[in-house]
Amino acid sequence: MGTLIIVTVALLFLTAILTGGYNQRFLDQVKNSVVWDYITTVDHKKIGILYFISGLVFFVIGGIEALLIRIQLVAPGNDFLIGDAYNQVLTMHGTTMIFLAAMPLIFGLMNVVVPLQIGARDVAFPFLNALGYWLFSFGGILLNLSWFFGGAPDAGWTSYTSLALNEFSPGPGVDYYVLGLQITGIGTLMSAVNFAVTIINMRAPGMTFLRMPMFTWTTLVTSALLLFAMPALTVGLLLLMFDRLFGANFFDHAMGGSHVIWQHLFWIFGHPEVYIVIMPAFGIMSEVISTFSKKRLFGYNSMVFAVALIGFLGFMVWVHHMYTVGLGPVSNSVFAIATMTIAVPTGIKVFNWLFTMWGGELDFKTPMLFAVGFIPTFVMGGMTGVMVALPPADFQYQDTYFVVAHFHYTMVGGTVIGLFAGAYYWWPKMFGRKLDERLGKWHFWPFIIGFHLTFFPQHFLGLFGMPRRVFTYNDVPILQTLNIISTIGVIGMTIGTLAFMYNIIQSFRRKADAPADPWNGRTLEWAIPSPPPAYNFKQLPLIRAYDQFWISKQTGKEIEPSEPLGEIHMPSPTYLPFLMSLAMFISGFGFITRGYEMGALGLILFFIVMFIRSYEHDPGYHIQPDELTGVEKEAKA
Fold it and tell me: Which of 156, 177, 278, 573 gets the most CB atoms within 10 Å of its CB?
């Protein structure tokens, strides 16, 4: 019944849009609204804002799920959240934070910043960029609909097939996981293609690869990782979908399948995914530390080499998640060496950040506070990463809270803290408003202290034998004490996050008054107004050195244009990416509810809209030179 309602509403919406509707005045109001503007936009900056807002929403949802987990574990024998309910919350917390919070927050910053940093007017594929966002968004919505239609997935965020097959997870929960992540993953892969092509082909004249900012470099490597890693997860999810929906036996051991194949497919994606979400944070750290130290990034070439090497080695370490599977000592030893080797380029970056700060004029604004907090926190996660890289030691740490602590020190202590630094740093460029510094410090201190209170004790919980993914533990005083401290820490993180949300609300209550260059920045995005115009640069810049904008300010010479002032052509807005993603959502929901006719109908709608797009002529719109003068005056002012 739910499927029929969704399909009916979608068809009515599609019919109204394509035919002009039964109420033209209402449709005109809709088309002139801000909501319609964002639904139809192909502007990379607006799509970045959509990614960022979606990521914040899912981050709050995942945080609430984490809070529920810590409330359950505050005392042994607690019955606040037990059994299948605990498994669902645990699964959705991990899945939401990795796929639906970290990824869109990263893509949000990439979308806004990277084209500006390379001096481009747009991304390579604006339509594909919009389609990637809406596929991600509808995939995330589909996954979270599981709470209301049959139960959420309960096989863990890794969805190991010993638990994820119909025999052990008979409800639709894992189906939501499979179809939701498939749709989200397609959108993610499209975004990776778009970023890679944009960076390779659309750099401003003179911007060689070794003149690109570090955030752009980390985006390029991240895109390459996604292009090679996502197909493994896509294949795994496709096979699991056939097992669950159509009775195939790819992973059913009793029928000749193999659980281990799923583990290989998942971790061939899963460990590069760790670098996919942490690599952009490395880029953010490089930009923030260099700007607020008022120094060129120390060892730029070695940083580029380190980032590329991490991307290469990231595909050679996945078996360290599988030491206890029984692959043998030779396999375990090879992957242990590769895992320890990857610590070398990581260490290069840490020392380069420290040497960048050494002797600099340090300015501890909120972005810099998060950057400085990032370094020791991530280093601690890296140290425990070397510990779990050793097979004999990992046999002891396996499936204990020691692994939970390590993972969160890298993902939260690294990725999330890095994203907070990036949010404060580029917020003026995104919205023309600075976030409040006082509220920023109220965000930083409770969050960073609460983080360490939450996860540092979990190392000892693991060493004392507390298993992860279990809703209770033995009534031992030391375990209870450490769990109480861990839950208190979550309260601090919650206070910090609430301060951040309040800061965002307050920023929109003020007039947009951020200058083009509020931090005395070094890269090209600070050379244009805040927020940027639709076309970014009225004349593409000519780049003659790394940190060209900083050099131009120091020498008092404006950046040379690489082209005469002329007409600018921009792509037209379109609602087709939204409709294609809605059709894919309908298809996924149909297959989950075993309404195969609805699933097929959704796919047919998807291909119909895609066919319409293939024959659609987009004339775009043109911006004349005399329309650029106002922006030029604003930038100079």
Answer: 177
